[in-house]
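Provenance and format

Records in this collection were gathered into a single text stream. Each protein contributes a sequence line and a token line. The two records reproduced below are adjacent in the stream.
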Amino acid sequence: MNISQLLMVVWARRWTVIAMVIFGLVVALAVSFLLPPRFRAETTVVIDYKSLDPVSGIMQPAQALPGFLSTQFDIIQSHRVALKVVRKLRLSDNPVARQEFLEATAGKGSIEDWLADLLLDKLDVIPTRDSSVISIRYTSQDPQFAAIIADAFAKAYIDTSLELRVAPARDTAIWFDEQIKTLRENLGNAQARLSAYQREKGFSATDERLDVESSRLNELSAQMVNAQASASDATSRLNQLNDFIARGADPANLPDMLANPLVQSMKAQLTQSEARLDVASSQLGANHPELQKLRADVATQRQKIKDEIANVAAGIKNSKAVAERRLAELQQAVASQKARMLNINKGRDDMSVLIKEVENAQRALDAANSRFTQENLQSRSSQANVMILSAAVPPLSPRFPKLILNIPLGVLGGLFLGINLALLREVLDRRIRSPDDLKDLLVIPVLGVFERRGKLGHARRRLWARRKLLRAPGAA
């Protein structure tokens, strides 16, 4: 069916279309005058999602705006916020509301929950594009009541947002308070173990005995090195003496003998006495008393020199024994001092572990105290990140119904319904209204058309003749 056929059908059944237009107009007028008016009040709130934290004073990280705002919409439309509105306005105390509740539920359930659901049915939350402003709209037959409910929802939402921030902080503060008691007890136990160990081992946190013992070990080590050198020297001297004796050499030529002033003095006296003996031997007889005396003195001096050499040799042997004994004593003292230092180091290591336990317990307690203070302050916060931008004002004109809008809608609706009804009637009762209809129905060419006279008939003939001329073979 082309446009021309459609217009013919509509014109042929124009009274049906006109009747439906009138029906739509009547319905629009009835709706406008019979239905009770509905007023819509609007309250806008702004969310400061990049505000400073009221406790720490630092900038809070920006939340993902779409997801964050969606969460706020759900909070506003939650049953919890609606219950706050009901309780704050004491709607459940209204006798009319109680009567309606009894009639609707037969007294089953809670009147507050029932009223909260009713309020949510007429509540709309509208976001502002690319903004953190939210519009809270409520529709009611009473403009004053609509404004009151819209403002009540905004305030209840602010209170709920604050509760959602404060309640977790309060629970966390209570948990940290309990943990602080345990951490304080752990710190006391660690300090008690450290004090007991210090009393048992004689250590202190600023113990300087390790430095003293280290100095003593260094001193003993130096003495042991000197003793080793002395023992080596004494051994060398003794070996040299034994070598002289083994070779039958005169021990008086030993370096120790040559360096001994007493032996050298006695050898000088012996030389003088031998010189006097030689002089006396050339002048006196062999049995002269003076000569005998000189000979006895020389023999005595020689024996003294031998005795002194023997004493020096014995001293060399004795010095070796003394040096070895001193070296052994120093080696034992060094080993004992090392063992003592190892014991001190072990004790200090054990004490360091205990000190670390005390420090860790103290740090844990300090961290818990810091978090407890922060969460406790946040749990007492009275500042929300939501503020009312504009309060609701009782609307002067109803949102629905609007006569100036309902009449055009009624006419358009009636026209649409009338056209469809006309087409439906045409389908159920198909009639020939143009040559095209006859051609489509019989599938044969139309030879001629008889039309009534008049302007409309003349116009149709001209239209039909033009179309026929265009369809003729050989037409340009």
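Adjacent record:
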Amino acid sequence: MIPHRRFSRRTFLRGLGAAVAVPLFDGMALEVAPAAQLAAEAVDGLAPKAGDAPRRLAFMFIPNGAHMPAWKPTGVGKDFDLPSILEPLADWRGSINILSGLAQDQARAGPEGGGEHARTTATFLTGVRPFLTAGKDLRAGVSVDQIAAQHLGHLTQLSSLELGCAPGPQAGECDTGYACAYSTNISWRTPSTPVVKEVNPAAVFDRLFGGGAREERRESESRRRHLRQSILDFVLEDARSLRGGLSANDRRKLDEYLHSVREVERRILAPPAKKEALSEEGKLVRPQEAVPDDFGEHMRLMGDLMVLAFQSDATRVCSFMVGNAGSNRGYQELKIGEGHHWLSHHGNSAEKQEKIRQINRYHVEQFAYILGKLSSVTEGDSTLLDNTMLVYGSGISDGDKHAHEDLPILLAGRGGGTIDTGRHIVYKDETPLMNLYVSLLNRAGVPIEAAGDSKGKLTELSI
């Protein structure tokens, strides 16, 4: 039997202004555990070891809390029924854990008074109370995704990826004396430097798959936009050459991956009415209309881009803001014209609470789609979902009370086989949300003992 070629995890298909990283082929996992990760074995023995597939971390934030009676299961352990909001996750029940009892104390009201929503986003991944200011003297904490990026980012093309479905201002005041930067970011590289999310799918696609010199990237983008060409058209020669050295199974993986890249690209370019324009300097300007009008499609498309980034090992760390703090978006697709934030202050109105339930369920439906995409990608004997730790939830439970305890938190994925899934786990009241993040960072190979206001690590996650 003739042995197949071995490939580096940094193998790219290259062409004019294009650099398409390849997916994880058989045998590639042997190269993904450098000494820096091996040193983390001291952390409870849960960190990746040589030969393991990469472990990915993702954090998805939803605004305005949740309608908790339709979120929280009544049963405990594996004996629970999915409540109304979580019913769309029925197919993925065995790959998720619903975590009750977690709290974000630093988001609560204190001497500063109002600003609950700004504090919620600023503390969601930091566990650090933000400094009250509407100016440039921002001060929060380093977010856990950026802690992971500092330890793992040198292994990948991008140290982290920040996504969202709603743009937001970075200057000025947005919430009771708090700067807008607190409301529109969950990722913080330093206590004074937020990492601004990208909401335009086309921009994320070009970041993932653009390559070469700046002028080459511009030429490639211009040709693709004007001639409706695919980025894959520029790397066909490399792709044909690569296929010749692959096993039958890896050829299938490559074909499926390239099909996914093309399908996402097609959806980004699909709306025929979305035309480019020329600036006064004669340069091509990507239209804002590249952001889908349909919210569900926007959220799914950004989820697809996250999956492609993980599949190609372009990054192992991602944050995803479904909405900004206090989002007051209406949901015409659900025939709900009132703003989300306004509805969250329901005053025990059954009508408002029902509309909140519908919005929450709609978000979960898109989340279920993303889980389906993650589970469809095979990596050896496991799937991309098996090797991912994806937190979905909010730093508020009941929006009417601005409650920051017993949060709606869901954890998807098995962390490379270190997490026992398919359960509703109820923790002691006021258990810090940051305890969860420390536990996940350890499983990703980040040897830390504390972050933000954590007081330990979560028990009962491990198999």
